Amino acid sequence: MSRYRGPRFKKVQRLETNLPGFTTKRPIIPLKKKRERIYITRLKEKQKLRLHYGLTERQLLKYVRIAGKAKGPTGQVLLQLLEMRLDNTLFRLGMASTIPQARQLVNHRHILVNGRIVDIPSYRCKPRDILTGREKAKSRNLMQNYLDSSSSSHKRLPNHLTTHPLQYKGLVHQIIDRRCVGLKINEFLVVEYYSRQT
Fold this sequence. Notes:
Layout: H1 8-15, H2 38-53, H3 57-69, H4 74-83, H5 86-93, H6 99-107, E1 111-113, E2 116-117, E3 130-133, H7 137-153, E4 161-164, E5 169-172, H8 187-193
Helix pairs in contact: 2-8, 3-4, 4-8, 5-6
């Protein structure tokens, strides 16, 4: 799988958004806006979504197609699919400080889902899934560092998750609601952008 290795601040500045766990000394200054065409606004929303979740174009198109076939509004279903990914769920639980770090924890086989090792970051978490760290000391040390840093920043946990930091365990109660996502993204513009390709 490919991933973006270029300068992140330039992308964040251009899209006028902020990434979770991304800190910079330079302030993000909104650019002077001219009247943008509809295509450009849709493209920017799509790029924000890709940058936030660290997805490739192909992966995002696949999620849009799955969301289009599901029941309910396509935009909401798309965000639910992206939020219920294993790497994003670990980030929301506070077991990793950024989504790329959560992806690395999963790739290096430090995470168990319902007692089994899962090394696929795009694994879709379901209600009543139990996420734990492996028994290995290295896994526990990594997760303890992340949990300590997240508890010191007092990050609020979404309603659909609970965490037990002493047991290195998190629980998924239900599928996330759109109000709990907390992204400043208009998902309907993303769906409109892909409407010709699906």
